[in-house]
Design the sequence.
């Protein structure tokens, strides 16, 4: 209102200072018409001042605008500042923006608007084509490897063992005739198969084919001279057909072999007694009786060999040992009793 009052005073001062002028042809305007015009100008200035105050930047600690929806009890009421006298200002400067109004920010360069760049490569960055790992095709897609099964040929010894086991099954079933070809096949595959040769020689001898059995045994002595069993079996067949000298020679030649036992020694001693070689026979009987002292027939043979050498007392003691063994055959029992009583 100070601006309006100032304006009215200036108008009154101008009216008092002006000289009286001749009356115009038309009467001047009434003062009642000028006052409403001034009031309209003053109202426009008030509206403009209110807009400027609304746009004026407020301090940071100024409370925010009140929400009309909040209850009045919860909203703090700011104290009304005392009225401040407004200095009269010209109209033109009042329309200008205040000096403190911040200027609009200048346009930022494009680099400032771009997002920050991470110097480390991102995990989502696609790898170069050369560095990409190409997965191998699944194993199921590959064709299965070709497996060539080649049957392993059995060794000669394995082949002989197979035939031998089949022959055993035939013998246990009582079919000796069917077992012999299997044993022959085993020896043809592997001549050193000892068990197959022994079984074949036994089957041939039991079948009355002693010549064929001797052939099998002689071959056995040639391929396995360390086996004393072949010499003992052959010597018995030779003695059975009356060739005592050949039988004794066979046993004497096989004494260094493996498997020389008491029976081997006693058989050789009996052959030597028949050949009149009593001193050698005594030695063989003593070796046999050291291994098996309970054989009555061997004590009887020792007594005969000692008696042939004129060693009557030693011979009578040997006959007594033969009777004491208790296993003499009935055909020899009377003969030994007679010898022991002499």
Sequence:
């Amino acid at each position: 209102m100070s601006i309006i009052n100032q304006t009215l005073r200036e108008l009154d001062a101008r009216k008092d200072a002006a000289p009286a002028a001749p009356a115009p042809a038309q009467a001047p305007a009434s003062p009642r018409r000028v006052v409403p015009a001034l009031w309209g100008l003053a109202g426009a200035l008030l509206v403009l001042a209110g807009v400027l105050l609304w746009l004026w930047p407020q301090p940071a600690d100024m409370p925010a605008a009140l929400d009309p929806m909040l209850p009045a009890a919860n909203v703090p009421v700011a104290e009304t500042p005392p009225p401040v006298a407004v200095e009269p200002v010209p109209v033109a400067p009042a329309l200008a923006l205040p000096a403190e109004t911040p200027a609009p920010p200048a346009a930022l360069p494009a680099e400032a608007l771009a997002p920050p760049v991470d110097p480390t490569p991102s995990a989502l960055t696609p790898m170069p084509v050369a560095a990409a790992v190409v997965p191998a095709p699944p194993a199921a897609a590959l064709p299965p490897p070709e497996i060539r099964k080649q049957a392993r040929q059995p060794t000669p010894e394995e082949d002989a063992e197979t035939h031998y086991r089949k022959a055993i099954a035939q013998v246990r079933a009582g079919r000796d005739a069917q077992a012999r070809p299997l044993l022959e096949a085993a020896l043809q595959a592997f001549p050193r198969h000892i068990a197959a040769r022994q079984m074949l020689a036994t089957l041939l001898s039991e079948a009355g084919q002693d010549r064929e059995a001797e052939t099998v045994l002689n071959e056995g002595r040639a391929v396995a001279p360390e086996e004393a069993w072949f010499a003992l079996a052959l010597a018995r067949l030779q003695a059975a057909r009356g060739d005592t000298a050949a039988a004794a020679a066979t046993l004497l030649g096989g004494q260094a072999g493996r498997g020389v036992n008491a029976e081997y020694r006693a058989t050789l001693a009996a052959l030597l007694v028949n050949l009149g070689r009593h001193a050698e026979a005594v030695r063989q009987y003593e070796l046999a009786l050291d291994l098996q002292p309970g054989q009555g027939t061997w004590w009887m043979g020792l007594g005969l060999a000692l008696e042939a050498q004129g060693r009557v007392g030693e011979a009578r003691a040997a006959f007594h040992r033969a009777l004491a063994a208790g296993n003499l055959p009935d055909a020899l029992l009377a003969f030994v009793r007679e010898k022991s009583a002499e």
In short: The mean pLDDT is 76. The longest helix spans residues 31-55.
